Amino acid sequence: MRYAVLVCGPAGAGKSTLCTSLLTHLHTVKRTGHLFNLDPAATDNSFAEHAPTIDIRQLISLEDVMSEMGYGPNGGLVYCFEYLLQHMDWLDEELGEYDNDYLVIDCPGQIELYTHHPILPALLNHLQRQGIRTCAVYLLESQFMEDKYKYFAGVMSAMSAMVNLEVPWINIMSKMDLITPGGAEVPRNGVRGKKDIARYLDPDPYLLSDENTSIAKSNPRFHALNEAIVKLIEDHPLVSFLPLDLTDPDSLEAILSHIDYTIQYGEDEEPLEVSTN
What we know:
single chain; alpha/beta; 7 strands; 44% helix
């Protein structure tokens, strides 16, 4: 059985860092993992520790598309993925026979690829048809907790991506070391208590309604929009986050355990026979 983890989320959320940390941890515990770079705009400097086993840039790169086709970055990125979908035989050959291996797929940070484009759903469906158990992890960085409106925009984008991609899903709040106390240094984004953090890991829509009292009279349309978002999140509580602090090995191990459970890693393996000699 083959397994794939799609690591996605907005730019700057720590996707490549998580991919690197996952691969390092897998190698440490004697498990085999491979990096699949799905970002045609990536640079070689992005892969200092683990070179990609599969790299979309070997098929097509954003730099070539922009120079030869005259597209901008976003249009060029969409073109790269459309080109990939037209050449899935290349991907099938690259996938090879990775039995019982993890494919850690590092995705670009353009959020529209996850929320409403049909490109990634088509790619994931193809992987599943190839017998690869696939799940997605969606990263949102802890800095979003500093602005409640920005945070709920992130929650809504995660919900939209979940609905669009239709695969087993894990949401992760990354860079938690920036808001939790660690040693003598004060975290960059300030210290938060456990109860306060819990309201963001399991989104509490009343965080948003708390802000409405001061603006209800001054901006009633904005107030009405916030109330509609609160109702949507209450009616469809699909999103919750696992905290990720890469300075804590136990945090990464917890994330990997959730991924293993989600894709049912190793459940098809036969039990080892005990030697009687």
